[in-house]
Amino acid sequence: MGRVGAVAVIGSGIAGIQSALDLADGGFRVYLIDSKTTIGGRMAQLDKTFPTLDCAMCIVSPKLVEASRHPNIDLLLYSQVTSVSGTEGNFKLKLLKKARYVEEDKCTGCGLCVEKCPSKVADEYNAGLSMRKAIYLAFPQAVPRVMTIDAERCLFLTKGKCGVCKKVCTAGAVNYEQKDREIELDVGSIILATGFTPFDPLLLKQYRPTHPDVITSMQFERILSASGPTQGHVLRPSDGRAPKYVGFIQCIGSRNPHIGRSRCSSVCCMQATKEAIIAKEHDPNLDITIFNIDIRAFGKGFEEFYMRAQKEYGIRFISSRPPEVQMDSSGKIFVRYEDMKEGRIKNMPLDLVVLSVGLDPSPETKKLAQMLGLDLDEFGNVASLIDHPLETSAPGIHACGVVQGPKDIPDTVAQGSGAAAKASALLATERGTLVKEKIFPPERAVPEMPRIGVMVCHCGINIGSIVNVPSVIEYAKTLPNVVHAEEAIYACSRDNQEKIKILIQEKNLNRFIVASCTPRTHEQLFQNTLKEAALNPFLFEFANIREHCSWVHMNEKEKATVKAKDIVRMAAAKSSLLAPLTTSRVSVTQKALVIGGGIAGMTCALDIANNGFPVYLIEKEDMLGGLLRHVTGLEDGRKSSDIIAPLIRGVMSHPRIQVFTGTLLADLKGYVGNFEGILDTRGTKHEIKFGAAVIATGAKELVPSGYYNYGSKNIITQLQLENSLENGFEKVPGNVVMIQCAGARIPERPYCSRTCCVEAVKNAIRVKKQTKSSVYVLYRDMRTYGVWEKLYREASGLGVVFLRYSEENPPIVKDNIVTVHDLLIGDDIEIEADSIVLSCPMVAPESNAEMAKLFKIPLDRNGFFLEAHAKLRPVEFATSGVLLCGTAQAPKLIDEGIAQASGAAAKVCVLLSKEEMETDAMIAAVDEKLCIGCGTCIKICPFNAPQLIDVEVKAEEMVYLAKKSRINPAMCKGCGSCAASCPVGAISPRGFTSNQIKAVINAFGSIPVVRS
Amino acid sequence: MSAETAAKVNGWEPKIVAFCCNWCSYGGADSAGMGRFQQPPTARIIRVMCSGRIDPLHVFNAFLEGADAVLVTGCHIGDCHYVNGNDKTKIKYKFLESVVRELGIEKERLQLNWISASEGEKFANFIRDVTEQIKKLGPSPLKPEGVA
Ligand code: FES
């Protein structure tokens, strides 16, 4: 039996959504299944995301809309998988879709029923802090926007009384007779993305979880949210008053073997830091303390974020975790903790306690794992191997996101893409067999007379609390050609896309402006909405009144409102002159280039090749394997050669992979879909063509010259230790001293290198097991995050001594004596060391700068490559066709690099899956009547897009040949440099024509006369 | 009203046009927002895809529409999303500077700055600095009659 070109994705959080989108874009049918009534998962519940403080709803909302609109994605919500049969390539799933008692195709989501419903129940979305009705929408931006009746709470369904929702529903959508439904699906592969459930603190009674002012971090997240129970005001639940003293207690339900939760949850330290910062932004008078064991700020930009929290926001971090929350005789809550500086126990009274709850595997995971025959690890995560992080124990079934182990959003997104690459590789032969083309209605012809609609967004309170939105709307109505203006709480929400379409219809609009956030993230969403409304997408215009206005003028509400009006006026001036733009199609070279033959590059090349596309894999060294060649042991006790060797074999023997070692990319031309590169293999040049490129150039270990006497005898780095552990380390027993953060987390290199703590404990265990040595690890924060907390525990069990030092008081190495001021004891300790091992950070190779120039891609301030978006686009660049994975992006562990590599492969496969792609619409156009054929544009253009051709010109009585410029649409990138240089103004880039820019400038100056 | 008297009027604030390229400086302005880097509400951003798109004519138009200062911004040299658009900007800017000199306008009223998409704080500081400088100078002599 043939394979089925469809995939079931179980779980519709950000991991599942990402998998679904990449598969659907790559030509597969996707069933996105969730037991909830909406997609979006936990991320939709967050207020903001660390470390960039992006508004979570703002960045996830476009994804929700995209997933729900994708022609290749079927949403199967409120549905549970009841049975699975079949094998890899051919699974049969049975689902039970619960009755919503509301017809999905009839409900408009107007919410009248919700208003009238008399039955109330605790609201899960607000973590129980508010009430919702028995008929409800999970949250305001929920997708799909369809109501659900909670059958257990509905008076009609339980007692046969009421029935008011049916009476008020004008759409006739309420149907009490609706029955649960069985659905059968045939799919080729299954992706499990069932995420987590926050730890239930009722298991830890000593923290008084039932006290109203002891809340979880998830509840605090909702309190901080503009759409939460207190509209974003920090108020304590007991009396609704503003608290003064707030304390976070970390590791509630993490790093605690007594309750069967010994792993670290990876995200809570940064979540608490983030929540503390946002709370301080809301109310600068708050006094906030975060009680912790260690602060695990290990990801990209996290350490810097943690520093900012202390320095800029004055948030206090105390390395002592109170064992309980106590109450004094007057009923006030307080905690007891150890003041390390003074070496004594203290009390701290608190108005609000936030328990930073860990991530428990969701209850569904266990059931599904049983049904699917998957192994779970000791922590209840879907079991996987370091070298196969996305594969489960059952062939054809993949896992991604927190179900595979605790992780943050970018790692989750990378895994989501990665799982898609694995599933599509399995079904590569069936690509495109079950897809539907998205058909947009034919575009309406646009009459000369502009009719502009304006929607001004409150963005929760992000805009509305600063800018006076109603007055901006009134103002917009007075602008020339504006025929309608109205407000929205979230313009980007699904219901507002519908609203825009209706407005365009009803008011006969032919231009639309949204005044909200930045076009850099949201333009496409609204452009698609216009397409669905039969309007050309380029008739849309953005007015950025959030990033450029409300967020930067928070203390000048009136002036911000004036500015917002100006911004809208300027947008309207441009909008009036917008014209429909069209695209053309160019062919795609369906081959990829992967740069870097380390573990990430090889994995990525294999995944792309397994998806059916040829790959050039280049490596500058003479051997494949990268940094991992210098590592000898893995965290799980295997040798690293156990995973490199098979990978090298796989790459070398793959019929679709061409490996070039000792090779550099010497030159690059072209653009997404049509790159041309010159490879330089030890002087021999070789020309290649490819459609997409992956940067997997890795990182290297810092040479710690200048730190801790490096260079003297017996002072080595962790990588050198790796080598000697494989080559007779046992001959030198004695005292081994490891110094963490050697050259990291200091002003000249502020970042945390993420992997060194895990590396150190791993090697400490190896030393202990091989020798009789004593091992000391001198650390600042022990960042053995996620499941690797078990190594820390094991090392302690084996007698490794951990001594904590502070940034101000680093250890001193003199000859073979290491002196460290231990924070716990509060005293100096001298250790006679036989071997000193420095745990140094990974650093970016200098060659990154050249690569960045070649591809026009940015580097971050530490020299690593800067991805397109810290949260949701971890493997992409703003430049399309160029992807990123592995330690080239930031230091990371092997399994993380591998998952990212698969993620980058998924993006490449999406691009290469089509023989043709659309060109940009916003390209330059020549007015031949004006062109004098001077050729300036040809000299200016870096892409060789213009060409001079002979054109027959007919003047009154003459016909003659003249040189005229013409633009190749596939090569033009629309920068507009030619237009700014054309001496006669004959060239104008579409979307930024001279007239349009001039109109915007005029609108800047002239305040139009108000129509009465 | 002469420039000096106007500047003395309490609370006068300049109006500034900032041309930003989509990939870097506009992103920098976005990052300023995301980082909540506060700045005076004096600037109005005009987005173009690349600083290379900024025509000297645009700059003069802005002055004629009453801008007290015009900012030309783009990616750092070498970072232009379109290879070298900002190199061309530099050349055009030289020309602009010379014209501004000829016209006798204070040089602070025309400024060039390279700001990357991650430099939110730099963007905010730039707007603050220019605002302060122009406040001292008062309204632009090119400002048309009757424009505040
Ligand atoms: S794209 Fe920013 S200067 Fe060219």
What does this structure look like?
The complex is a heterodimer of chains A (1012) and B (148). By secondary structure, chain A is an alpha/beta fold. The model of chain A has no long low-confidence stretch (mean pLDDT 94). In chain A, α1 (14-25) packs parallel to α10 (409-426) and α16 (599-610) crosses α17. In chain A, the strands form 17 sheets. A five-stranded parallel β-sheet of chain A has the order 5-2-1-13-24. Chain A has 25 helices and 52 strands. Chain B has 148 residues and is an alpha/beta fold. Chain B has one domain (13-137): Rossmann fold, CATH 3.40.50. Helices cover 42% and strands 16% of the residues of chain B. In chain B, strands 2-1-3-4 form a four-stranded parallel β-sheet, with helices on both faces. In chain B, 56% of the residues are buried. Chains A and B meet through α14, α15, α24 and α25 of A and α2, β2, α3 and α4 of B. Residues 21, 23-24, 50-52, 74-75, 80-82, 85-86 of chain B line the site of FE2/S2 (inorganic) cluster.
